[in-house]
Design a protein that fits this description.
Blueprint lengths: L1 E6 L5 H11 L17 E9 L2 E10 L2 E10 L6 H21 L14 H9 L4 H12 L3 H18 L6 E8 L17 H4 L2 H22 L2 E9 L7 H14 L7 E7 L6 H9 L4 E4 L6 H6 L6 H12 L5 E8 L6 H14 L3 E6 L22 H15 L3 E6 L10 E5 L7 H7 L3 E5 L4 E6 L9 E6 L4 H6 L3 H15 L1
Parallel strand pairs: 1-2, 5-6, 5-13, 6-7, 7-8, 8-9, 9-10
Antiparallel strand pairs: 2-3, 3-4, 10-12, 11-12, 14-15
Length: 497
């Protein structure tokens, strides 16, 4: 897509690109007139005149041209940047409806955290009703999505409370899986050669865990949650899992944690011995993720388990002594229908897990499904829209509350991922991490340490610094940047003081 931005005030190019991807998932951008022509071209002209920002968008697509002009005043609570985005967004929505007969349910809201705008408006002192109205009128969000975003923001605010500057969480990476799902883009490894690295990887990881908790003590931090993710952490053998969990147990008081999560995930890697070890060392939360309870769909997306294996794994988890169990489902998987998804969701509800997380199928650049070409993308979402709506209605009917939400690029139907929980069983780590309210110290290949100096609304901008561990296991084993991470963390918190 050719993209041209003109104006007498700054225009956020990334924001415009994300608006375009609502209508043209997977599109690539160019500023050159000589770029390969995919039949798409957008010109954005923005001009500020006194207290008004006027945006003109001209879109050429599918042999047709559409244009729209919208404006927004710069006034109390509306900065020039926000006014510019609102004006451009309104113009793009008008064109999209005209040319493509499509109006996205999230309106012009883009980005990972659709509840962020609702949270900001709540913190400004607005009522729940007024926030919903703002989302509808200013951002053209539908009534259902405005209500969802506001409810999630309220739940997140209650969980976050008043964070202490010395709070932190620990993330431990196990980037290995038994097989690669066709929709997956995570840095996870499945070949025999790479899986053979696990014993050496664990030795190195345990050393890094020691360094990580030494940094916690040196910096005077308070560990709130520990999260072991991947990949599939339960790909480890029982002795390997015990080696990992006993190291964490030796480094911190697991009984003092708010939450201790083992992201098991794959039913075909779960057995009673492993979960007994997890319970022994203080794990309080885990996931058993079917993604769907339709075996034909499971096979089509490369999940190496059956519905029966999920039920077996779930039963083991329920009887393991681990307090909270989450299950994940994905709406919009290739080959899935509203009927099969609804049946899957109803069967999951019958099990009464503590949490149910409903993801929407998302097409990632490095996923195998990308080989199917552009047809894999779906702007309007098809059955996925009904599936997501059904899951949210049924979850709330069964007493689950939405408490956590995020979105990804190129998601089918521009839809969301939502975590539902029975009251009192909400997962904390994901909220702390996503909302950037405290530091995340990370160990392992592909792990990202996020140093955070949180500032409440009205007290300045939250300061964040990200530190990246080597991405691939073989690089991680060859390169050691723990000293650099330690030095950066010390400097970061010294500046804060």
């Amino acid at each position: 897509m050719k993209l041209f931005l003109n104006g007498n005030i700054p225009i956020n190019r990334y924001y415009v690109q994300m608006l375009c991807m609502i209508y043209f998932p997977g599109v690539k951008f160019s500023e050159s007139e000589n770029a390969e022509d995919d039949g798409l071209c957008l010109t954005v002209n923005v001009k500020r005149e006194e207290d008004t920002v006027k945006a003109e968008c001209i879109l050429f697509a599918m042999g047709k041209e559409g244009s729209a002009v919208k404006e927004k005043n710069v006034e109390d609570g509306v900065t020039e940047d926000r006014a510019t985005k609102l004006a451009i967004g309104a113009a793009m929505l008008a064109i999209g409806e005209e040319l493509l007969s499509y109006r996205p349910s999230w309106g012009m809201l883009i980005g990972v955290r659709p509840s962020k705008v609702a949270m900001e408006r709540l913190l400004e002192g607005n009522s729940k009703t007024k926030v919903r109205k703002m989302l509808r009128n200013d951002y053209f969000v539908t009534v259902k999505k405005a209500a969802l975003a506001t409810d999630v923001a309220l739940a997140e605010r209650a969980i976050i409370g008043s964070p202490d500057k010395k709070d932190c969480s620990i993330y431990v990476s196990i980037p290995f899986c038994p097989t690669r799902c066709a929709y997956c883009s995570f840095v996870s490894y499945t070949s025999k050669k790479l899986l053979s690295l696990i014993p050496e990887y664990l030795v190195r990881l345990c050393k890094d865990i020691e360094v990580t908790f030494a940094n916690v003590r040196r910096l005077g931090l308070n560990v709130k949650t520990v999260y072991i993710g991947g990949g599939t952490p339960t790909i480890l053998t029982a002795p390997q899992l015990e080696m990992l969990l006993s190291k964490i147990y030796d480094c911190t008081d697991v009984n003092a944690l708010e939450e201790y999560t083992l992201e098991a995930g794959r039913p075909d890697t779960i057995d009673a011995e492993k979960l007994a070890i997890a319970a022994k060392y203080g794990v309080t939360r885990m996931s058993v993720n079917p993604q769907t309870l339709c075996d034909k769909v499971l096979s089509g997306v490369g999940r190496n388990h059956t519905t029966d294996e999920f039920y077996r794994a779930y039963d083991i988890a329920r009887n393991s002594g681990i307090k909270y169990i989450n299950t994940d489902l994905i709406a919009g998987l290739p080959g899935d229908t509203f009927k099969t998804f609804a049946e899957s969701f109803d069967k999951i509800v019958e099990l009464e897990p503590d949490n149910i997380t409903v993801h929407t199928f998302c097409v990632k650049k490095s996923a195998e499904l990308m080989h199917q070409g552009p047809s894999i993308f779906s702007r309007k979402g098809g059955d996925a829209v009904k599936c997501v709506d059904y899951s949210q209605l049924r979850a709330m009917q069964e007493g689950y509350k939405p408490y956590y939400m995020y979105r990804q690029k190129n998601t089918v139907g521009n839809l969301e991922n939502v975590g539902f929980a029975k009251p009192g069983s909400e997962g904390l780590y994901n909220i702390y991490m996503m909302e950037e309210v405290h530091t995340i110290l990370a160990a392992g290949a592909g792990a990202v340490t996020k140093l955070v100096e949180y500032k409440p609304e009205g007290e300045g901008k939250t300061r964040i610094k990200r530190l990246f561990s080597p991405k691939y296991p073989f690089e991680y084993l060859r390169e050691d940047n723990t000293e650099e991470i330690t030095r950066c963390a010390e400097e970061f918190f010294a500046e804060e003081i």
